[in-house]
UniProtKB/TrEMBL annotation, chain A:
Ranges of residues in domain MacB-like periplasmic core: 25-233
All residue ranges annotated as the ABC3 transporter permease C-terminal domain in the record: 273-385
Keywords: Cell membrane, Membrane, Transmembrane, Transmembrane helix
Family membership: Belongs to the ABC-4 integral membrane protein family.
ATP-binding is among the record's keywords: no
Membrane spanning stretches: 21-45, 269-292, 313-343, 355-375
Chief location: membrane
Native species: Nocardioides marmoriginsengisoli
GO cellular component terms attached to this protein's record: plasma membrane
Domain of life of the source: Bacteria
Membrane topology term: Multi-pass membrane protein
Protein name, UniProt field: ABC transporter permease
Gene Ontology MF annotations: transmembrane transporter activity
Subcellular location: Cell membrane
UniProtKB/TrEMBL annotation, chain B:
PROSITE patterns: ABC_TRANSPORTER_1 (PS00211), ABC_TRANSPORTER_2 (PS50893)
GO cellular component, one term: plasma membrane
Native organism taxonomy: Bacteria, Bacillati, Actinomycetota, Actinomycetes, Propionibacteriales
Record's keyword annotation contains Coiled coil: no
Superkingdom in the source lineage: Bacteria
Listed Gene3D superfamilies: P-loop containing nucleotide triphosphate hydrolases
Name by which UniProt lists this protein: ABC transporter ATP-binding protein
Length: 392, 229
């Protein structure tokens, strides 16, 4: 039997593609775009997931947010001043920090802001344990210190600082009808984003200087990791024994997870589009190979005269199709990885692209290349040697 | 009839689909060392005869034996092997690839024999050197003259040391001087024991060969003015 070595098949395929470099590049590009889209969509989704996992690892999933609801008259209710202390008595609760929004107070950069111009920030009295309970981070300055909390000092949420245009600790801010000193600015709070626009006063000085009555508009509760659900059940009656039905309990880490899950649906759609792109790329490769099998009839005839069997001709064309497709696949994986890396950098998220994504991308192009080359290969191998040689 | 025939045609016919009878009961034997010309007008069936002798095609009637094997019963794979091992083809259009060097074009003659790439190249260099193209190994065929290209094609046909060389109008695209060189090379091969069959409609070329067969309307006719000696 005639025989064709594996190394020679590879050599033949590479040479065949060199014959029409532009055509080869364009066909490979079609595949590359589809694969790049797939890799990028997966890479971005994986990076977001990894980022969330990391965040939740740091933030914990054992935080509960306790909120009073509106009563039957549509009035916003408040939790009693004892709520946090009562909640702390539940055995698995490790921390409970109250926040009491002071609706009558505004905060401005100066007392000369025209009357009637509403403050874009809220003022709230907070327990000094709050930062630790929500595992927040200070981006500038510091959190309330025991010494500082005797004077009117405030800490700004990230959005509050932006809206007031205050960057540096030490700046004065006009709260209600007096000056307070900004001692710190927080980084955005992932588990309590509702506090980002808050100008926070320590509960003690809020009662002393700003007329706070100690009631709460929310309480943040940390519990034992394994007892979150059980604690959540007893929270309403503990926080507001008189009207437990007006207390709602939520778990902010679930909201973060749900947001990512919602992105999943979009990812599926994008993956579907990428798959269609890959399919179109495969059709392009197939088309290129059919054209090649027609143009290269005399080459086929010559090879048959030199001893090539039909399978030898088929393998040559199949190998070209495979090589073209896989070359596009490799390019696509590189491109998709670059997009993922660029996106991660822009989002400040650690890039996560498992090796299996690249392997799958290239494996998929190998399948596409084989399928795309099948018909052209069979077609080329069916060519009769005599008519193929006569065609020039 | 001292040697066994390498190619033997017995009452061979080839009717193409549509009813064209390109060959009609042709009998012919080619022995080692034969230097045979096939002549005849255009459309008489010369190429058809050569294709049948070269196992590129199967007859619709009669028997073709190549190296003792009857073609009619062979599979496509077996025919391919026979072509690769026993026969070297030379074409009017050279059929060289512009993507490969001269050396690689010749080495391609052994591609389907299982010989390794390195060894194929060595054998190609050897054949090319013998044909006076040792200085052209790395060039592309486009850089060569027509005569040189046909010598490259002959080297490719020879690289597997076939028992028969079948050449269809090998001088058709060449001027007289280059054509003569090619014929001289082929004569040398025949002298070395290879059977050489050349299809040509150049009477002068044919006249210089040992044996001339004339084909008309698919049949072999006797050549009255046969050169003797
Ligand atoms: N594949 C084919 N299908 C149908 N008819 C064919 C085919 N190949 C050749 N023929 C016909 O068979 C006859 C012989 O053709 P062939 O090519 O053998 O002639 P030739 O002697 O080589 O001619 P030329 O000198 O022009 O090359 C011609 O009438 C030709 O038209
Ligand atoms: Mg002809």
């Amino acid at each position: 039997m005639s025989r064709l070595r594996t190394g020679d098949v590879a050599r033949l395929a590479a040479r065949g593609l060199r014959g029409h470099p532009v055509r080869f590049l364009l066909s490979a590009l079609g595949i590359a775009i589809g694969v790049a889209a797939m890799v990028a969509v997966t890479g971005i989704a994986q990076s977001s997931q990894a980022d969330l996992d990391q965040k939740l690892d740091r933030l914990g999933t054992n935080l509960l947010t306790v909120l009073p609801a509106e009563d039957l008259n549509g009035e916003q209710t408040r939790l009693p001043p004892t709520a946090a202390a009562m909640l702390r008595r539940i055995a698995p609760v490790t921390a409970a920090s109250a926040v009491g929004q002071l609706d009558d107070l505004g905060a401005y950069r100066s007392p000369y802001v025209p009357e009637g111009q509403t403050s874009s920030v809220v003022v709230a009295a907070v327990d000094t344990t709050l930062l630790a309970t929500v595992r927040g981070e200070v981006s500038r300055g510091h959190w309330f210190t025991p010494a500082g909390s005797r004077y009117p000092t405030v800490v700004l949420g990230a959005a509050a600082a932006r809206r007031l245009g205050i960057e540096t600790p030490g700046t004065r801010v006009w709260v209600g009808d007096q000056w307070a000193v900004v001692v710190g600015v927080l980084a955005p709070l992932d588990l309590a984003p509702e506090l980002d626009p808050a100008v926070m006063l320590p509960a003690g000085s809020a009662q002393q200087y700003f007329g706070s009555d100690g009631t709460a508009t929310s309480v943040y509760v940390r519990t034992d990791e394994d007892r979150v659900a059980a604690v959540s059940d007893v929270v309403p009656a503990t926080a507001a024994p008189e009207s437990p039905e007006l207390v709602s309990v939520s778990r902010p880490s679930s909201a973060l997870e749900a947001k990512l899950a919602a992105d999943d649906a979009l990812d599926q759609l994008l993956l579907g589009l990428a798959a269609v792109g890959l399919l179109v790329g495969g059709i392009g490769v197939s088309n290129t190979m059919i054209i090649a099998s027609i143009e290269r009839r005399s080459e086929i005839g010559l090879r048959r005269a030199l001893g090539a069997t039909r399978p030898h001709i088929a393998i040559q064309f199949l190998a070209e199709s495979l090589l073209m497709s896989v070359a596009g696949g490799v390019g696509g994986v590189v491109l998709g990885s670059l997009v993922t890396a660029y996106w991660s950098r822009a989002q400040g998220v650690p890039p996560a692209l498992p090796v299996w994504v690249g392997a799958l991308g290239i494996g998929l192009t190998a399948v596409v290349g084989s399928l795309a080359g099948l018909y052209p290969a069979v077609r080329a191998s069916r060519e009769s040697p005599v008519s193929a040689l006569a065609s020039l | 009839m001292t040697d066994a025939a390498v190619i033997e045609c017995t009452d061979v016919s080839r009717v193409y689909p549509g009813g064209v009878r390109a060959l009609d009961r042709v009998s012919l034997a080619v022995r080692p060392g034969d230097f045979l010309a096939v002549v005849g007008p255009s459309g008489s069936g010369k190429s058809t005869l050569l294709q049948l002798m070269g196992a590129l095609d199967r007859p619709t009637g009669g028997e073709v034996r190549v190296a003792g094997t009857e073609l009619g019963r062979l599979s496509d794979g077996a025919l391919s092997r026979l072509r690769g091992e026993t026969i070297g083809f030379v074409f009017q259009q050279f059929h060289l690839s512009p993507l490969m060097s001269v050396c690689d074009n010749v080495a391609e003659g052994l591609l389907y024999s299982g010989v390794r790439h390195r060894e194929r190249r060595l054998l190609a260099v050897d054949k090319l050197t013998r044909l006076g193209l040792g200085h052209r190994l790395r060039h592309r065929p486009d850089a060569l003259s027509g005569g040189e290209r046909q010598r490259v094609a002959i080297a490719r046909a020879l690289v597997g040391d076939p028992a028969v060389i079948l050449a269809d109008e090998p001088t058709g695209n060449l001027d007289t001087a280059n054509g003569d060189t090619v014929i001289e090379i082929l004569r040398g091969l025949a002298a070395g024991g290879t059977a050489v069959v050349v299809v040509t409609h150049d009477r002068e070329v044919a006249a210089g060969m040992d044996r001339v067969i004339e084909v008309r309307d698919g049949r072999i006719v006797d050549v009255p003015d046969r050169v003797t000696g």
